[in-house]
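Limitations
The structure tokens in this dataset are predictions for the assembled complex, not deposited experimental models. Users should treat interface geometry with appropriate caution, especially where small molecules or nucleic acid strands are included. An illustrative entry is reproduced here so readers can see what is and is not provided.
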Amino acid sequence: MLLVSLRLLSVFHVTVCTHVPHGAHPEQVERYAEALQHGLFQCRDGSEALAASVLNDDFCDCADGSDEPGTGACAGVPGAMLFCQNLGSVPRWVYSSRVGDGICDCCDGSDEAGCPDTCAVEGPALIAQVRAREEDIREGRRIRRQQMEEGGKQAAIWRAEKQGLDDELAKLMLERSGLDNKKAPSTDPQVRTPANTPKSTAREAPAISEYAKWSLQPDEQNQAADQPGELQCWVGEFVGAQAWCCDPSQGPRGRGECWDQVFTFEACCPNAKVATSEDVARLIRQVKGRIFTLERKLKAVSRDPRWFALAETCVKKDVMGKEFSICFFGDARQGSVSLGSFEAWDEAGHQQLYTGGQRCPSGPSRSLKLRLVCGAETQLLDISEVSLCSYEAAASAPGACGSEDLQDSSTPLTPLTPLTPLTPPQ
Amino acid sequence: MALRVQVLLAGWVLAWAVDKSKFRTCEQGSFCRRFRKYTDKVQQEPGLVVHKLEPSSVTHAGNKVQAQLLFANNLRVKPLLLRLSFFLSDVDGSCGIVRAFITEQEPMHPRFQLTEGDVVRPEKELKPDTVTVRDTGGVTEVDSTSGTCKVQIRHAPFELEFMAGGQVLRLNSRHFLNFERYRAKGSSREGLVDATDVDDGNLFEESFGGHTDSKPRGPAAVGVDVTFEGARDVFGLAEHAAGLGLGENRFSEPYRFFNLDVFEYALDVPMALYGAVPLVTAVQSDGLASGFFFPNPSEGFVHVEAQGKDTRSWWLFESGVMDMFFLAGPGPQEVLQRYHTVTGFPRLPPLAVLGKHQSRWNYVDVEDSISINRKFDQHDIPYDVLWLDIEHTDSKKYFTWHPSHFREADKLLDTLEASKRKLVTIIDPHIKKDSGYDVYKKMQSHDFFTKTKDKQLYDGWCWPGTSSYPDFCNPEARKLWTTFFKMDYYPHNRLDLYTWNDMNEPSVFNGPEVTMPRDNLHRCSESDYKVEHRDVHNVYGFYHHMATVEGQLVRAPNVRPFVLTRSFFAGSHKHGAIWTGDNMAKWEHLAISVPMLVSLCLCGASFVGADVPGFFYDPEPELFQRWHQLGIWYPFYRGHAHLETKRREPWMLGEAITQNMREQVTVRYQMLPTWYTLFAQWALDGKPIMQPLWYQDTADAEAFRYQNTHFLLGDILVRAVTKAGERTVDVYLPKGAWFDFWDPQAPPAGKLQKLKVSPSNVPVFVRSGAILFKKMRRRRSSPTMAADPYTVVVYGDRARGFVYLDDGHSHEFKQGRFIYDKLTFDGQELVAEPGQSLHAVGAATGGLMSQSAVIERIIFVGLKSAPRSTRLGDSPTELEVTTSPTRNNAWVVSIKKPQCLLGTAWKLRLDF
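Predicted assembly:
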């Protein structure tokens, strides 16, 4: 910092600035008019009043670089940039370090001497690209708003369901302890072989309710569950169990559409009674599994309800012949190899961390960082192993759309603007 | 990269270190073990005479003297031949280069000698120094006719003393001379002739680490003692991960020379590393310096110890001949200029490779690489060269590309070219044994691969699996290798696609000490495979590097090559850059990098660097930052990372660190004109770039204590910050006044300073009296700076500086097409004198096309008063000046657009 600044002026130029200096943004016209008064130029930071001739004289006079909007003289000063109007294409800011370095960066050629104006050539495609992106972001934001609302409702439903299941679990635990006390011979583990297990037992066991019947013969029942109108009580095949009641009177619906009809077991299957401790144990497992699933879903909405939409979603992508899949808030895989399970969001909430995947031969266990970027469609954009067993991926989702993403073709691109979330897939 | 330890179940363990038991000590090798016993015996029996010079055998002609050395205890053993040759320094024509050559006559097997011109220049190219010879009774005196250099030879026992001015080096004054003649197995003899007469174990076979060395030719070691009279210490012997002073008596083990791929090398040990330069510079307490150079490419041990006023040493090699050079001072710089006279002057690199290098094992594919390039642009951080490690190839077959990941290599190369950047691909020496691989087929069909002791094709295990190793010692094999760099051979090739030679010790995962068996066979310049690997081990990497450089020259003769090597030997400075191999992201490794690099520079190799911020492990953010802050002051500045580390590009650690990286890398680029001048003065004038603190004033005893500080050619002083959380450091500033590089308003300092260190940079000082040349505008890469004008910074009331520039990429500078100006400031006038000379290329004649020579700004730092007016020459126009006071009532004066050009004569006058 200069404590005292003494400038010996050899030449005075008095000019009235009525136009935008080269390299400045049209909106800055007033600022430059203000800075240029009485034959002097005032640096933007107010530090120095210099001869007006310093403006764009290819010498960096102001510590803030404001006297050289159109040359590379202040390249390296933080924030020093040139504005290319790029008429016919997308306007953009470029760092002053790009000005006069022998490489054409602005399609209108304003950053270099001797660069042709190629805006008419690149413009239409670029504008279309920006517009498409803009449209994508708008749509993404619309969906996001919708998801915010739906997510809030859904979160309440999940919480209620979990509450119910917690109660159910407590009851089942009680029931099991009661059954255990009776020590039914059929449940004696010593007379059973491992192969001779629940399924066959289940067939032998008296079916007390539709639910129990279904839950003990999931394969057949699952088929049935897809039949419209027949669905009464449905349990998914996930490790744990999902118990749903769907009201057949509401018409034909697949099991995936039962979301809004959640009841406790008792409400859904009031006659459910379980005869054996295996059945109870199985139900406990299933209820616990469902609770686990719900906890995961609730985790998804704990940060923000809009992410509910990802809680049930998986995305896939082939990269160089390898199939990658990520189930949000669940597991990430390359083929059958686990790349990790959802662990946490990063602080800023833009990245998800998946950890504890399959261990590498000589390294750590696999892990994945998933960056979410704005897009109307939920898809896996890119994934790669950036260092041994450490993966980075990017996925688009409406939930990631914020106001900051909005780019329209009248807004200049900045050097850090990603035009598209990532390079398009090969 | 080094061999990766396979840890299957042990998990992710961080505390790995070198397995010392894998590498031989002196005691574990028979030739070193028996030499030590021999020297013990010689020392215990002071009257013992083993070698005596036969006075009647002395002959002399011109600059050469020849004589026979008899084995006093057995005159039936054929005498040794001693030949002395005297030469003048190429740089100043003064005397002070004496070559002492000792070999056996009519050996049973040829004793290996390096081909003339490869490491040491052909004698016919050197300037002879005619001598006179006289016998003064028991002593033969040989005097240079051109100066005060002389050699005295005592006849019995044989001793040799080299004197030049005030420096004295004594050869064999402790009578350690040991020359083991080749012999038939089972032959016997009488009397003490050499070390095998003290210990005859393992003469014809020995084992280590489960590998047996068949040693069919038996013992052949050569060794001798060298005493540096009055020397407080000696320096050099690169490459060891140890401190600068070799004679500090820290180690009982001698320094070892045996080029090896040492996984996670230990620090502060004399163990062998990747390269070998058997050269020392001795500095006497009166400040005079002298050098000793013993270019033997077999396994070597050098022991150095301070003893009273002297520094003593012994040198031992497994085979070959004794080809030794005495190099006179008076200063260390003259020693090095004599070393370059003998070995050749360094290769001037292209300007672009003095910028930032960005490497990683491995950028995954074309998209990944392009995105790295894009992010540098987005973050406005300059860099010049992107590097691709082994994974970019098809199954580790060099000169190929990965069929999917780098199928579109052209897209990457085009992208880099569009931002005027370059690519480096790795080309290791091991060649995958694969009959479908053309490089393998060609090498094999010409029978150019190294052989086993039974003359079968030698297979070793390396990255690609089973591999063969070209016999780079063979000039014909090297010639074939050069053809692989041709534009129509190497796919996606470019005229400036640069190369990285790794693993060229050579590294052989399943070989003894992770290298090739010593009884393997090379052809070298012989007609058949009869040179043992033991004879040439330490030049394997040297020749690989050399062949690669020649390949780039075959591809484009007028494009300056750039090849980085890990393994090297004396003379590798003629080929390209060297780095300190697979270091670790640890503070100790940051700290050792300074003495390791300075040591290399003292061995003639100034184009050197250490991987920033350490190859293995993830650096903590502070280490990351401190290492980059230091790395911008390395001659070779490359960011690199191991496969298992996290990504560590400059923007990976948050906005604050990204910002600091941007600023620090920008400083590297702003200083490029100064860097380029330093490189020209090194390559074309023989002056080392990184220098120890004592280099400019060898009488300054205090300066020898500091190893964390280095000079850049004496004018810029850089103090590494070597500890976590270090807030204040001691900085030793030698005689004179020193300006803070980062703060021109600060008062100049001197002597020992306790400094508060900035988190943003390491302490850097500029000598009062220096002139630095800069380009202030940040750009994306160095070629994009070509049109940018210069800023000249003059430090102090009296100053002198040089600036070199040329087109930056061609060999036109050899025809004088460069600018080399001297600027002097006497307090009132700054005078530019163009057309200065550099030793290797003569006077500058200018004639540049592509580079700006405009000076946009001249800054005077530390003027006593502010000038009233400033004019260029006789011009009536006053220049525009900005002045600001410093904190000690001096002035910083900046002159805008002084209207002068580099390469022209001008005077700038300040009136006060």
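Some entries come with short summary sentences. For this one: Residues 692-760 of chain B form a domain with the Immunoglobulin-like fold (CATH 2.60.40.1180).
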